Amino acid sequence: MKRYIFLILIILQLLLIFSFSSENGKRSSGRSRKLVNTIVNVYKKVAGVDLDNKEIIKKIEYPIRKCAHFTLYFVLGVVVIEFFLTFDLNHPYIISIIFSYISACLDEVHQTFVPMRTGKITDTFVDAIGFIISIFIIYLIGKKEKRHTN
């Protein structure tokens, strides 16, 4: 049963990733700017400072977009490794990394067919950092649990 739950979660996460990638460039940029503007406005209220939103948005929009890549693929890495751990495989961690990277590459190829979007190999590297870190965390948790059960 656990295996099927993780499979469904993989499918849902991939649908979420591909739905964001299906947005044309204008809509995707608008979504990013709206989020960044919200972050800047909250910061201004909390810190009690007056900032030029346009200037700040220019500076932080790119890192925020990369954080989104990282986060989406971090979550994908968690559900992928948990899925492959339900099988008796020799190298579930390597298989999970390969599966996740292929997914990231296919997502970037997909973006090349979306108006005003481009596929970037550098985005797959940011994605890879996300899923590799999450898979490594699950690996460390598994090692710790094995030590406590022995």
Question: What does this molecule look like?
Answer:
By secondary structure, this protein is mostly helical. It has one domain (2-27, 67-149). It is 83% helix and 0% strand. It is built from five helices and no strands. Helix 1 packs parallel to helix 4 (92-111). The longest helix is centred in the middle third of the chain and has 32 residues, at 53-84. 21% of the residues are buried.
Could you give a short description of this structure?
The chain is mostly helical and 150 residues long. The chain contains 5 helices and no strands. Helix 3 (53-84) packs across helix 4 (92-111) and helix 4 packs antiparallel against helix 5 (121-149).
Radius of gyration: 18 Å
Binned, the helix content reads over 70%
* Tally of individual helices: 5
Strand fraction equals under 5%
Number of structural units classed as domains = 1
What is the first-to-last residue Cα distance?
26 Å
* Major sheet size, sense and barrel closure: none
Q: Please tell me what the overall shape is.
A: globular
Strands, total number: 0
Please tell me the overall pLDDT: 91
Q: Tell me the series of helices and strands, N- to C-terminal.
A: HHHHH
Structural class comes to mainly alpha
The low-confidence parts are none
SSE layout:
Layout: H1 2-22, H2 25-47, H3 53-84, H4 92-111, H5 121-149
Feature tags:
globular, single chain, 150 residues, 5 helices
